[in-house]
Design brief:
The structure holds three protein chains of three kinds.
Chain A lengths: L9 H10 L1 H23 L4 H17 L1 H14 L3 E5 L2 H15 L3 E4 L3 H5 L2 H7 L3 E4 L2 H8 L16 H12 L7 H18 L2 E4 L3 E3 L4 E6 L3 H7 L3 E7 L3 E2 L2 H15 L7 E5 L13 E7 L22 H5 L1 H6 L10 H12 L16 H5 L6 H14 L5 H15 L1 H15 L3 E2 L2 E2 L7 H4 L4 E2 L6 H8 L1
Parallel strand pairs in A: 1-10, 2-3, 2-4, 4-7, 5-8, 7-10
Antiparallel strand pairs in A: 5-6, 6-9, 11-12, 12-13
Chain B lengths: L3 H5 L2 H13 L15 H5 L3 H14 L6 E3 L2 H14 L4 H13 E3 H8 L11 E5 L3 H6 L4 H8 L4 E4 L14 H4 L1 H17 L4 E4 L2 H13 L5 E4 H6 L10
Parallel strand pairs in B: 1-2, 3-4, 3-5, 5-6
Chain C lengths: L3 H12 L17 H29 L3 E5 L5 H11 L4 E4 L2 H4 L3 H5 L5 E4 L6 H13 L2 E5 L2 E3 L4 E5 L14 E6 L4 E2 L2 H13 L9 E5 L4 E2 L7 E2 L6 E7 L5
Parallel strand pairs in C: 1-12, 2-3, 2-4, 4-7, 5-8, 7-12
Antiparallel strand pairs in C: 5-6, 6-9, 10-11
Helix pairs in contact in C: 2-7
């Protein structure tokens, strides 16, 4: 995916984010709030850990019979009167939708929040084809008006102040609105209500699809998911194929922990179970339902090193606790999915090269794994990714040489001691009271902001004979 | 196991650890020729290289009854990663598993192996404790260090807000993304200074290097010390200044 | 364009390369769903007084407004009061077959215009009802299930029970009795298994909706606001003697 943001190297994008004072404050407040909400929600759920284990088990068990469940899902959706499309790539998924729009005379499509449609850059394609896509999730609506991408999986406009939103609305909607969330919400409600009622097509993602019954499940809070799947005459759901789950019983396990992980709610305001298009006698509901099952790089990970990342529920909990995400926000990552899981998903969907820098955007602290509702071992996969970059010679040659040299030092105590002596000698011009304040070249990266201890006049190994 | 950072930059921590262990009646030996546990190689994805270093380390500590490490991340490396790094060689792998079972981070050794709940020392002051990521999440330890600190009569232990948030070191992360690392550190140090503590304690050389480096650069009166130094008492309190 | 066969072939090929990460199972399903559902019903028939208390607590926790009456004939007065508070003159509601009682007849003594969902699905009906539902400030439905653990109303769509009734008006009121109560999400799972396993059951509608409180968002500076696209307020009227 070509993107002007990616023209700037990641360290610079991160640096720019660090200098954005409002973003820093917004990130601290929002992520801290999410962390507290999640903690509280799980504190009130004694069976939480057991449920997380079960959820992880269900995801793994599903992958072990994935073909069966995908077939069952497709058969059931079709039995209910829906259509199923199989998209190997994002482009194919877009094609299905564009063809539908052409054939059915769709002029306007209302969208419920869907990371899958962000991933395939659907809106741009629709616009190019003369179809107007309208994002209806408030956060997505805001960033659509601002021509930006989401900066968080759950709260896409977290980086915007209410003042910025008010200005945006005033400019784009030709009015004057106070910087008050209540007022701005009411504006969005009014504007979008008309769109829901007039749109030809509703486009959603899917949090889950239940194979046993052919049910598409949407977990939302605003009501736009319900609008989009009830009012327009066509409903299209775009779904990563890994979102299929076997049964309604399995669904309850995920519902028990998903909203708690994402926002601290026991359940989101609306959980919608869509079972095909509207029935005879039903006044509302789409005439046509289309489910697009998407690969886009996912299938390759069934036997790949990122298999576990296929368990992801897109709850955003890992973003909220990640020390890196909390400092730089979502845009700096540069791809659809930010944060810890975002790095893995980017590798999955865009390839190893795309994460040459991002794979190192982690201190491997493990906080993400701690909060993941399906216990994805993100740190381990990040280290594996780094190994791939090394083996695949994608990591820079200079870096690989340095680490080879380091290994030599670690294998040879003689060399090690020689280096210690050399280090002591080389550091002499820079040492002040046992500390190194400003070092040149590579070491300047540390000393720009931190003191570095000098190599000890006598290392512990050298002192041992006095201690023995 | 002294660790590379401990050997080169914090020998006083090693000395404090030896003093504490001896005071508790433990016979301490120091196999010569120690270099590094190989974690920096492992974390950056150089696994073949890390395996070679792991093999060497396993052989080096073959005879030891217990291996005590003043660093949660190094102990974690040995206990969790060595066996799978050496899975290609069954004998080495078995040796690695045996070593893993005998290797302990210092606070875990004191509390779990020695069953010590109190190490008295003459240290006095208000202290706050930072949970190093690998000790907390990798080895599941958050109580032992706090218990030991709280048991020193002169210590006024105050809880650090968001103690479990990373300090920003992350090994090579600290120099690959130095600005991000420093921003994360700033947040941590703001929390530390907010506690009014005289002293910040951690059980990891990397965290100490990062946090002390930041505290000293900003001229803070807060000292960053290793748990061993608190337990060893006033003779060990000095951070090395030569 | 990729075909089903091609897609699944690719999936199978990848699956063949691995046994997976660890032995894992899906959630155990009730062997006989209908019996399991009946067992749940029997349990709730006894436990409903506790269940309704729990429901009330959780419903209020998510900003729901809870009312309780002894008999169905007390409901119209509550509805009229809510309508008066909201300054509502028009009420949209499910048709009598879906609701189990006649909303229009019940509200006849009160000065309210009642717009019922027609049980037909002609284009003219559809358009008119859409306008009505969009216009009316108050929507009245039943609740097929009411989950105590989370304060959730569960509504099945179908003829005479459109989705918009609980979605478009500013205020949504759900009227139900003890028969709707369930205590845990796990029980909802059992009921859903039974619902879908019943071959004799005609597939009523295209959607089942779980409603937990009013529509909400915190997308602007994480400040919570209600009534984004759906109702700003949700009421529950619990009828001890049953609502049908």
């Amino acid at each position: 995916m070509s993107d002007p943001i990616l023209a700037t190297p990641f360290p610079r994008r991160a640096g720019a984010a660090l200098k954005d004072a409002y973003l820093q404050e917004a990130l601290t407040i929002a992520t801290t709030k999410f962390i507290d909400l999640r903690k509280e929600a799980f504190a009130g759920l004694p069976e939480g850990d057991a449920l997380r284990d079960r959820a992880r088990g269900i995801k793994e068990a599903t992958l072990q019979r994935l073909d069966h469940y995908l077939e069952q899902l497709a058969d059931n959706v079709q039995r209910l009167g829906g259509h199923v499309h199989w998209a190997a790539t994002g482009e194919e998924a877009r094609e299905v939708i564009l063809r539908l729009c052409r054939d059915r005379g769709v002029k306007m499509a209302v969208k419920s929040k869907s990371m899958a449609t962000e991933e395939i850059e659907l809106n741009a394609a629709l616009e190019r084809a003369g179809v107007t896509p309208i994002e209806t999730d408030l956060g997505e609506y805001i960033i659509q008006l601002a021509h930006e991408r989401p900066s968080h999986i759950i709260a896409p406009a977290i980086h915007k102040t209410k003042g910025q939103v008010a200005d945006l609305f005033s400019r784009e909607l030709k009015g004057r609105f106070a910087a008050d969330p209540e007022v701005l919400t009411a504006v969005a409600r009014r504007e979008l209500r008309q769109k829901f009622l007039q749109a030809d097509m509703g486009i959603t993602g899917a949090n889950f699809a239940v194979a046993d019954t052919g049910t598409i499940v949407l977990v939302t809070n605003e009501g736009n998911g319900r609008m989009v799947t009830s009012l327009p005459r066509i409903h299209v759901a775009v779904m990563g194929m890994e979102k299929v789950i076997p049964s309604m019983t399995d669904l309850m396990v995920f519902l028990a922990i998903l909203a708690r992980s994402a926002t601290g709610q026991k359940l989101s305001s609306y959980t919608t179970l869509v079972r095909g298009p509207r029935r005879p006698g039903e006044l509302e509901g789409p005439e046509e339902l289309h489910l697009i099952l998407m690969d886009g790089g996912r299938v390759q990970q069934i036997a790949g090193p990122l298999r576990e990342a296929l368990y992801c529920l897109r709850c955003g909990a890992c973003l909220n606790v990640c020390p890196v995400y909390r400092q730089i926000g979502g845009h700096a990552y540069g791809y659809t999915y930010p944060g810890p899981i975002g790095i893995l998903l980017t590798a999955m969907l865009e390839g190893d090269r795309a994460v040459k820098d991002l794979a190192h955007a982690s201190s491997l602290c493990g906080a993400c794994k701690d909060v993941c509702p399906v216990r994805i071992d993100i740190p381990r996969m990040l280290v594996d990714l780094r190994e791939h970059l090394d083996r695949g010679r994608i990591a820079p040659r200079s870096e690989r040489l340095v680490f080879r040299l380091a290994r030599r030092l670690m294998e040879s105590p003689t060399l090690f001691r020689a280096c210690v002596r050399a280090g002591r000698w080389l550091q002499r011009p820079f040492v002040r009271a046992g500390r190194l304040r400003r070092l040149p070249f590579f070491f300047g990266k540390w000393t720009a902001t931190r003191e570095l201890p000098a190599v000890a006049a006598r290392t512990f190994s050298e002192r041992w004979k006095d201690l023995a | 196991m002294i660790t590379c950072l401990g050997d080169l930059f914090f020998p006083e921590v090693g000395e404090a650890m030896v003093a504490v262990l001896r005071r508790l009646g433990v016979a301490v030996d120091f196999p010569p020729g120690q270099t590094c546990c190989g974690m920096p190689l492992f974390n950056s994805g150089y696994h073949d290289d890390a395996a070679r270093v792991a093999a060497r380390t396993v052989r080096l500590f073959e005879g030891a009854e217990h291996v005590v490490v003043p660093s949660g991340s190094c102990a974690w490396m040995v206990k969790t990663e060595y066996a799978s790094l050496l899975k290609g060689d069954p004998a080495l792998r078995a040796a690695a598993e045996a070593l893993a079972a005998r290797t302990w981070e210092l606070s875990q050794f004191l509390v779990t192996v020695l069953g010590v709940s109190r190490v008295e020392s003459d240290f006095a002051g208000r202290v706050t404790y930072h949970d190093s990521c690998h000790l907390l999440r990798g080895l599941g330890e958050s109580r032992a260090p706090r218990a030991l600190l709280g048991a020193v009569s002169g210590v006024d232990l105050v809880e650090l807000p968001e103690a479990d948030q990373c300090c920003g070191f992350g090994g090579s992360f600290s120099v690959r993304l130095p600005e991000v690392s420093s921003a994360i550190l700033d947040k941590k140090l703001a929390a530390v200074e907010g506690t009014g503590a005289d002293c910040l304690v951690a059980c990891d050389g990397g965290c100490l290097m990062q946090m002390r480096g930041g505290l000293e650069r900003r001229g803070s009166r807060v000292r960053a010390l290793h748990l061993a130094q608190i337990l060893a008492g006033s003779t060990a309190e000095r951070t090395r200044v030569e | 364009m990729t075909t089903r066969v091609q897609f699944l072939e690719r999936v199978r090929r990848e699956m063949g390369k691995t046994r997976g990460l660890f032995p894992a199972t899906t959630a155990p399903r009730p062997a006989r769903p209908r019996e399991a559902a009946e067992a749940v019903r029997r349990q709730l028939a006894e436990r409903w007084p506790q269940a309704v208390e729990r429901f009330r607590a959780e419903f209020e926790r998510v900003a729901g407004v809870f009312h309780r009456v002894g008999r169905l004939d007390e409901v119209p007065a509550v509805l009229a009061r809510i309508a008066a508070e909201k300054g509502a003159r028009e009420v949209v509601g499910w048709d009598p077959a879906a609701l189990g009682w006649d909303l229009r007849a019940a509200l006849a003594p009160h000065d309210l215009v009642v717009l019922l969902a027609p049980p037909r699905d002609g284009e003219a009906d559809r358009r008119r009802h859409r306008e009505e539902a969009a216009r009316a400030p108050l929507g009245v439905t039943g609740a097929d299930w009411a989950l105590a653990e989370t304060g959730t109303l569960i509504l099945f769509s179908g003829p005479g029970r459109p989705r918009s009734t609980s979605l478009l008006p500013d205020t949504h009121v759900a009227v139900f009795g003890p028969a709707a109560l369930l205590e845990t999400l796990e029980q909802v799972g059992v009921m859903l298994e039974a619902h879908h396993a019943d071959p004799a059951r005609v597939d009523g509608g295209g959607a089942i909706t779980f409603i937990t409180g009013p529509s909400r968002t915190a997308d602007i500076e994480l400040t919570l606001t209600r009534g984004v696209h759906g109702p700003k307020e949700v009421h529950a009227i619990f009828v001890d003697a049953g609502a049908a």
